[in-house]
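chain below, 317 aa
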Amino acid sequence: MTKRVLLAKPRGYCAGVDRAVVTVEKALETYGPPVYVRKEIVHNKHVVETLSERGAIFVDEADEVPEGALVVFSAHGVAPAVHEQAASRSLRTIDATCPLVTKVHQEAKRFARDDYDILLIGHEGHEEVEGTAGEAPSHIQLVDKPEDVDRVTVRDPSKVVWLSQTTLSVDETMERVNQLKGRFPELQDPPSDDICYATQNRQVAVKAMAAECDLVLVVGSTNSSNSKRLVEVALQAGASSAYLVDYAREVDPAWLDGVSTVGVTSGASVPDVLVMDLLAWLADRGWADVQEVTTANEKVAFALPRELRKALKEGVR
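prediction:
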């Protein structure tokens, strides 16, 4: 039996995650610890643990941050109420919201100003959804599961638009959109695709190799929406089995029984060192032949948050 690994490209860090992680690292270097971070900066256990060791303190809400301290808002974005809460405690803030999430926030505000009913496709309780919904709570209704489609009520069927969480599966989102269009034929599409380029690219890469894989291993954390979607996409695209692991040590050797081709990829919040560890673990067990499957080359990069660029330029502490 030939043992080989198909390694998806693109995988791992997207531009928004890279920017958010570097933001916390630079804030620690510039201001010194502690730097407070509201929620996990990105949904990855390893990243959060590494930054904690360097002096980042992760909190659930801005009111847990001591008055006047520095707080970084995570890549997933926050509702206006969070900015108000931070201001009321005189917190210095650095907003590391991914620019692609900010774009969805702007769309939500614009459609709310034009008095549309906004149907937000996303997962209930996810930080990104809470942040977007907080931009226009009286105009936004969340559509998560198929049954939510039937519960939606709108004031004027000709003034309805859908937006979505940026990290969903493209197929699942379009399934919801089509269900919604069945109820509201005049439902408008967002001015540009809300699903982020990185989410989409990672799903396309997995689809390209899944049918050849007896097993797909996705490196990522259980609270990472885009990582979990990669497991679903792999199975839907023909992989015999697929699992999500944070670290190589979490792989159950029994998963490899009778397996010749292993597919490997990682979610958009995963540092590549974890993928390299997994490849080394597989190589030790006979899967040393690694072939990269490339479906796109990403060239996207985002500038650091304005507040941090200013501080770096001035060399402030």
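The mean pLDDT is 96. Residues 10 and 296 are 6 Å apart (CA to CA).
thats it, cya
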